[in-house]
What we know:
Blueprint: H1 3-25, H2 42-55, H3 65-79, H4 89-99, H5 101-111, H6 121-125, H7 131-135, H8 145-149
Amino acid sequence: xxxxxxxxxxxxxxxxxxxxxxxxxxxxxxxxxxxxxxxxxxxxxxxxxxxxxxxxxxxxxxxxxxxxxxxxxxxxxxxxxxxxxxxxxxxxxxxxxxxxxxxxxxxxxxxxxxxxxxxxxxxxxxxxxxxxxxxxxxxxxxxxxxxxxxxxxxxxxxxxxxxxxxxxxxxxxxx
Length: 175
């Protein structure tokens, strides 16, 4: 990848992040560390809380442009290992990994159901264990575009008793 392409990619990513931060900074606030969260989509609540965690340097529940700019300046300096005032792709990778570390830890904790600081195969498989069963609208045993088209329709004919196969008695299930 050429340097110009890398710089354009990094610039594009920075622009998206800046736009998201600017939009979030104008959001309605509802007290310390709470961005007017009533009526806010759950994903936006998480975004707002993470923005506050990262940028609210003085912990007053508000994010100023100065706090954002100071944070960005400090992070660029921290990860600019060759001290040329820019981030190479390798330097940006280190910054990105650090910025997303907390998200990674939260996801690990989501999988580690028993809290033993280890994720077993069963814990890892758990969240998707019934994905096909729960979303296979046409009953063919796989997920496909047909299932997406049918997402608002009921299960196919042949199981019109209102029960899923798993809700039936074992002797009622087809082999």
